[in-house]
């Protein structure tokens, strides 16, 4: 069992290690280093001759990763950057190509559990949702500024919320009375719009789940960044290099699946995981976050 960094349990660690098979002396790029859970496993496998590059948009998580990786033997480069800028990041650390490219998408438990970050409908806090403090638009800005039609589209397209139009209408009615500034306020507006009591035992998932996901995706341009990462990956990987991506919902898993299949047709990748790898029962019991995780792995073929 891995000794985990505080606040976040990495998912599918055994499967990630087996399928990405990091070898001593290689170069690993972890595009979402988080608090360094997967990173530490990679770094240990790399040994003193290897290089580990980790990036994250969240400086708070990077600071934890720095501590997590403080005693590993390999060369460690941690960069505050968005994975949509892989090229310049690699250039800045003097690396041309990598053997392993890994991304564990979405937010970490440390971000979700911090009420002040505004990611969670279960913790009342400012409606923010920026993973990167350099971003200038918050979830509150979108909720209070977008037209009803645009809000409905956002809820529907980013998270397939079926009640998108109803929620958008109620949000616009509510904000005419008072600006919406907190997660608690928004969660109540959504529950009322859907006529669902979130504390009821009959409600399996909180009624605000999809709307919050849709906003988070929009604030952080998650799908745009993922597309950029997938587009840049083949050039970054050495022949025989492995790419592994963990997605937590279909809106982010679909682009990965589509990209890998397209690259396979072009003769660029061999797909290792014909179906996405999911957590085993024991992990699902121990770590509820793992229940929606889907890992896909492919190998870069020679030109
Ligand atoms: C699920 S967590 C990763 C956890 C990590 N594997 C671990 O074991 O600690 C996702 C991380 O990716 C970061 N992130 C999300 N989108 C990003 C992006 N476009 N570029 C860089 N980092 C990103 C988040 O800030 C968060 O720290």
Tell me what the structure shows.
With 303 residues, the protein is an alpha/beta fold. The chain has two domains: 13-110 and 222-300, Vaccinia Virus protein VP39 (Rossmann fold, 3-Layer(aba) Sandwich); 136-219, DNA polymerase, domain 1, CATH 1.10.150. It contains 13 helices and seven strands. Strands 3-2-1-4-5-7-6 form a seven-stranded mixed beta sheet, with helices on both faces. Helix 2 links the parallel strand 1 and strand 2 (51-56). Helix 7 packs across helix 8, helix 8 crosses helix 9 and helix 11 (222-236) packs parallel to helix 12. The radius of gyration is 20 Å and the shape is globular. The two termini are 39 Å apart. The mean pLDDT is 94. S-adenosylmethionine is lined by residues 8, 10, 31-32, 34-38, 55-58, 61, 82-84, 104, 106-108, 131, 225.
CATH third-tier fold name of the largest domain: Rossmann fold
Proportion in β-strands: 5-15%
Residue share in helices?
Answer: 40-55%
Unreliable segments of 5+ consecutive residues: none
Give every kind of bound small molecule, once each: S-adenosylmethionine
How large is the radius of gyration?
20 Å
Spatial strand sequence of the major β-sheet: 3-2-1-4-5-7-6
Which word captures the global form?
Answer: globular
Q: Order of helices and strands, N to C?
A: HEHEHEHEHHHHHHHEHEHE
Number of helices: 13
Largest sheet: 7 strands, mixed
Number of strands: 7
CATH-assigned homologous superfamily of the largest domain = Vaccinia Virus protein VP39
When the domains are counted, the total is: 2
Q: Determine the N-to-C terminus distance.
A: 39 Å
């Amino acid at each position: 069992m891995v000794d985990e960094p505080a606040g976040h349990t990495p998912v599918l660690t055994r499967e990630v290690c087996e399928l990405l098979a990091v070898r001593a002396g290689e170069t690993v790029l972890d595009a979402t280093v988080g608090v360094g859970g997967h990173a530490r496993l990679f770094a240990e496998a790399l040994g003193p001759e290897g290089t580990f590059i980790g990036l994250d948009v969240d400086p708070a998580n990077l600071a934890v990763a720095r501590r997590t990786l403080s005693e590993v033997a390999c060369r460690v480069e941690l960069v505050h950057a968005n994975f949509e800028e892989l090229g310049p990041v690699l250039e800045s650390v003097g690396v041309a190509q990598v053997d392993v490219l890994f991304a564990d998408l979405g937010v970490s438990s440390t971000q979700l559990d911090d009420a002040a970050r505004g990611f969670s409908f279960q913790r009342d806090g400012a409606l923010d949702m920026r993973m990167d403090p350099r971003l200038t638009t918050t979830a509150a800005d979108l909720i209070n500024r977008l037209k009803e039609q645009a809000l409905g589209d956002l809820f529907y397209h980013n998270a397939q919320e079926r009640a998108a139009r109803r929620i958008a209408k109620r949000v616009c009615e509510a904000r005419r009375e008072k600006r919406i500034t907190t997660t608690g306020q928004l969660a109540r507006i959504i529950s009322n719009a859907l006529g669902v009591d979130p504390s009821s035992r009959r409600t399996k998932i909180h009624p605000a789940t999809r709307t919050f996901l849709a906003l988070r995706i929009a604030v952080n341009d998650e799908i745009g960044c993922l597309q950029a990462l997938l587009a840049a990956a083949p050039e970054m990987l050495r022949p025989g290099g492995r790419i592994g991506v963990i997605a937590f919902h279909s809106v982010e898993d679909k682009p990965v699946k589509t990209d890998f299949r397209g690259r396979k047709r072009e003769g660029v990748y061999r797909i290792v995981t014909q179906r996405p790898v999911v957590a085993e029962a024991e992990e699902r019991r121990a770590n509820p976050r793992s229940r929606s995780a889907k890992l896909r792995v492919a190998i870069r073929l020679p030109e």
